[in-house]
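Incident log, support desk, overnight shift.

02:14 A customer reports that sequence design results differ from what the structure should imply. Their input is reproduced verbatim below. On-call engineer (initials T.W.) acknowledged and began investigating.
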């Protein structure tokens, strides 16, 4: 079986055919522009958690608080994780905690390993 976007071109086409197992419906209440980040960055983050065999109660380290980092915190929080954000920008600490991180480690102020334990 050929998978569109993986084994053959077609992900950016105006129209395409794909096996139903590889697509997800977008609810009518969600605009395509709002859904796009969830279909790209969101699946990237979710697949990382899924492939790591994530379970509620696991500790999740989010490296950086950019676009993927935001989604990483939100997904891991909703899935019952304990979230640690690692960033070299101390100005991101309040934002990380507002999103649901329990711990923030400034990677420029010492050993990350020591801070985790």
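02:41 Re-run completed on a clean worker. Output:
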């Amino acid at each position: 079986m050929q998978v569109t976007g993986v084994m053959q071109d077609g992900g950016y086409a105006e129209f395409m055919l794909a096996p139903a197992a590889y697509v997800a419906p977008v609810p009518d209440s969600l605009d395509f522009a709002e859904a796009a980040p969830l279909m790209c960055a969101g699946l990237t983050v979710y697949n990382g958690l899924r492939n790591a065999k994530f379970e509620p109660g696991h500790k999740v380290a989010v490296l950086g608080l950019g676009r993927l980092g935001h989604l990483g915190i939100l997904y891991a929080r909703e899935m019952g994780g304990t979230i640690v954000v690692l960033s070299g920008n101390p100005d991101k600490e309040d934002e990380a905690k507002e999103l649901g991180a329990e711990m923030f480690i400034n990677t420029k102020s010492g050993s990350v390993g020591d801070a985790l334990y």
